[in-house]
Amino acid sequence: MSFRRKPNPNRNHPEYCPYCAGTSLFPDVEDEFAWSCADCHRVFSVMFHGQDDAEHRPDKAPSSAQALQQSLARHGHTLVTA
Ligand SMILES: [Zn+2]
C-alpha cells in the first residue's frame, strides 16, 4: 500500500460536522487536520492539542506491605515483620 503523503498519526476522525451535524465527512487538503462536509460544504479542522494536568492528583497508593502494616495498626496490632 502506498500513500501520497505520510499518514498523520494525530489526525482525529469526527463523526459529525460541527456546523450542520452532517455525517458525510471527507479529508480535505486545506491542512493536515482538515475535513470537508459534503452536506454544507464547510471545511474545518479537528486537532488534539494535548491534555491539561489534573487540578488535583490522588495520593500515591501505598505498597501492599505498607497497606498491610497500616491495616494491622488500625486494628491494634503492632508491627509484624516477615
Ligand atoms: Zn456540515
TrEMBL record:
Listed Polar residues bias regions: 63-72
Lineage top rank: taxon: Bacteria
Organism, as annotated: Corynebacterium vitaeruminis DSM 20294
Protein name: Ferredoxin-like protein, involved in electron-transfer
Region of interest (Disordered), ranges: 53-82
